Amino acid sequence: MDLVVVLGLCLSCLLLLSLWKQSHGGGKLPPGPTPFPILGNVLQLDFKDLSKSLTNLSKVYGPVFTVYLGMKPTVVVHGYEAVKEALVDLGHELSGRSRFLVTAKLNKGFGVIFSNGKRWTETRRFSLMTLRNFGMGKRSIEERVQEEAHCLVEELRKTNASPCDPTFILGCAPCNVICSIIFHNRFDYKDEHFLKLMEKFNENVRILSSPWLQICNNFPVLTDYLPGIHNTLVKNIEYTKNFIMEKVKEHQKSLDVNNPRDFIDSFLIKMDQENHLEFTLESLVTTVSDLFGAGTETTSTTLRYSLLLLLKHPEVAARVQEEIERVIGRHRSPCMQDRSRMPYTDAVIHEIQRFIDLLPTNLPHAVTRDVKFRNYFIPKGTDIITSLTSVLHDEKAFPNPKVFDPGHFLDESGNFKKSDYFMPFSAGKRMCVGEGLARMELFLFLTSILQNFKLQSLVEPKDLDITAVVNGFVSVPPSYQLCFIPI
User: Fold this and answer.
1) Selecting from 1.10.630.10, 3.40.50.970, 3.30.160.20, 1.20.210.10, what CATH number does the domain 26-486 have?
2) Is the pTM higher than 0.85?
């Protein structure tokens, strides 16, 4: 019996290896580490810091290589030249989105982040147009952000200079800006439903960045049969979508097709038009959910990391406050016109985004048709990982990339210096829909905070740990407390 079992196992392994060679595309994919059957290269990767693992592999296999995340080959693109070529030069061919991510599975191909083909094209085009119509990049949205910045400052005053964890407050501000665009109203920071919504968002970011979710993304069948935190993610997404659906129902009852108030109204009007089969209630709820998640957590996490870095580098915070005092003063709110006259502050915000490397491996793309890339053949449907870390931490563009230095974005005369390597929002056709809004929020929220408060750490700056606690989907800063001392 033992011999039969051994022979059976050997035959099974040979069969799996045969299938493996077939799926490898006859050696036409880029080179990479030898995969194990079924598991692929999973055991050779550190899912607590996948970006670092991929960087190490690039030193062996070059800027374009293949790893097997489970049974599926994934092409990794590393370094500025290769990433630019993939995202910009081959933007159309590589504009697909992987269908194997847990979040993509939950969204069922709807929304603006995980959709593909015609549905993605139409949903993205509509979202960009509607956000512009409701003020993205115009003064009206700037006024909304300024109003929310004022509310944020008042909320921080209520801390009475006592130690506090800024996570929740810094999440409320960008979330309320999104609410004003989508729902036509903002929430009080003490609103029970708002509190619960923010709690779900914060929890989802931690779950999505956990090693277990990285494994589930590569073996999605696990989510169907095993317990784990992925079930909490599912419940949180369902809660958010139910919350949105209630708002949609309210909008349906009071809709005036001649006077759309917000994003939901505009979507409902689009749904009633003929020949727009991509616009359904499910698509609306998922798209709003995408805008909520992307527009809240990325900005709030960046703000939270920003204050931590300014605590770590009080000399930088002091210099920003000096520039605020000189350009803006104390008696008016910051506005976007100020940014061009504040090169140091602009450089600091860019350096924060570069340094924290918020989305280290970007969101995975997928090949929409068979394509030749750097003499390699990549078949349709292949997942593509573009390393944003390799661009944002490139030593040629940013000397000492592991060091926080606003000088990376300043020339010898102290003027702001742009860099083609600055890609925190990705690049090409799949770059962040809300980039303009995020840039505005970061500038107006940070300058408003520093205009009104001195940041005081509870420990010596040299003892502050600024290392991300998880570095999976998102780089999450460690928890910390500080005091907001009124100026």
Assistant:
1) 1.10.630.10
2) yes
